[in-house]
Amino acid sequence: MPRITFSTVERSIEADEGTWMYEVAQEAKAGIPFACKAGACGACATQVLEGVEHFGEAGAREVRTLTAHKLDPATHRLPCLAEVHGDVVFGRPAKAPEKGAALQIHEAVVESYRPLNLTVAEVRFFVETASFAFKPGQYMIFHVPGSEKPLRRSYSISTPPSDKRHFEVCVRSVAGGLGSNYVHRLRPGMKVKVEGPVGEFILREKSQKNILMIATGTGIAPIKGMLLHLLDTHSKRKIRLFFGLRHDSDLFYTDLFRGLAAHYPEFRHQIILSSPDPAHWAGPRGHVTDLIEQQVSPADAATTEVYLCGGISMIESSKECLLRKGIPQDSIFHENFY
Ligand SMILES: Cc1cc2nc3c(=O)[nH]c(=O)nc-3n(C[C@H](O)[C@H](O)[C@H](O)COP(=O)(O)OP(=O)(O)OC[C@H]3O[C@@H](n4cnc5c(N)ncnc54)[C@H](O)[C@@H]3O)c2cc1C
Ligand code: FES
């Protein structure tokens, strides 16, 4: 039977061939922090001292996540994606384990399913756990049934915490995607298993700084949750939203943001499309980085904090632009989906 050793806690256990490595790590109390359990967040990245060959070649998702955390797949791997296939000796986890209990698993019932455009749908859930609570910006890990091996996918909560025992997600169906299409097949009355809430991409509620929110695609989900929370709690902070999509057929939540802007003078928003049909779109054309270039001034640097959510390339280019404008690194928060 393969032997898995966690050198930092000096613990070693035998595990059956094919067992999930994260189950072994959790059983051994190895001090490896797990969050998404889907190879997306990088929380569990750990040095492999011996036996890296038993992980097989790192897939595209793992390489992308490790690279985003400036880690080399030759020395670090994501145990949440690995099965046991031989002796392994782990070294130090790249991140310190977070304090606190393991994630809670909840059953949730689908209350509604609403298509927002041809590929994005909003799904509303009632959580059966009475004590369920979350912070604006956090996400839930969905257990996706139907495949041989356990499959988990993370989806951000798009509603504010005042909506007790409920949460909504807003999910784009990815061609051939197992998790996103599972969510798209959910209908009222169906039950799901979710873990969480999880995540550090949360609204800094004690700050008094103005807020710039930048989202592309379904990256709007946690941003919308934060925005509704700020408006719910009558925050006096000035909020600007830049929301980027590709085509005019991709538009969603346009009426929602227009309505919120009409009711809340402290909230302004702009939607920008990168490839609109000029016959159907008279608004700005380009990318969210164009709005940053045009509208963020060095005077914003000391008074503004920024929340970014969407794909990794948008986050990287927006961050670079914001830093150039003088926004300090520690005032920029982000969550990347892909
Ligand atoms: C913290 C966090 C929060 C997230 N919140 C949301 C959310 O609120 N809404 C949402 O829609 N998604 C969100 N995601 C992304 C989500 O978790 C999945 O990665 C996504 O739904 C694809 O999973 P899948 O199982 O459908 O596709 P997979 O079966 O994993 O992949 C199928 C194919 O599509 C490619 N692919 C995977 N993801 C994408 C993508 N996003 N765009 C293009 N191609 C892709 C893969 O490389 C693969 O070839 C979040 C991710 C993270 C890490
Ligand atoms: S827990 Fe392994 S990458 Fe998120």
List the helices and strands and how they pair.
Elements: E1 3-6, E2 11-14, H1 21-27, E3 46-50, H2 60-68, E4 76-77, E5 88-93, E6 105-115, E7 120-127, E8 139-144, E9 151-156, E10 166-172, H3 178-184, E11 191-198, E12 210-216, H4 220-232, E13 239-245, H5 254-263, E14 267-273, H6 288-295, E15 304-310, H7 312-324, E16 332-336
The structure holds flavin-adenine dinucleotide and FE2/S2 (inorganic) cluster.
Flavin-adenine dinucleotide (FAD) is lined by residues 36, 40-41, 60, 139, 153-156, 169-172, 174, 176-181, 218, 221, 335, 337-338.
The count of domains is 3
Rg, please?
21 Å
Question: Which CATH architecture of the largest domain is right?
Answer: 3-Layer(aba) Sandwich
Which strands sit side by side, in order, in the main sheet? 9-8-11-6-7-10
Instruction: Indicate the proportion of strand residues.
Output: 25-35%
**Mean of the pLDDT scores?**
93
**What would you call the quaternary organization?**
single chain
* Record field, number of beta strands: 16
Named once each, the bound ligands are: flavin-adenine dinucleotide, FE2/S2 (inorganic) cluster
Order of helices and strands: EEHEHEEEEEEEHEEHEHEHEHE
How many DSSP helices? 7
Query: Which ranges are low-confidence, i.e. pLDDT below 50, for 5 or more consecutive residues?
Result: none
Q: What is the helical fraction, as a range of percent?
A: 10-25%
What sort of overall outline do the alpha carbons produce when their principal axes are compared? globular
Report a brief summary of the structure.
With 338 residues, the chain is an alpha/beta fold.
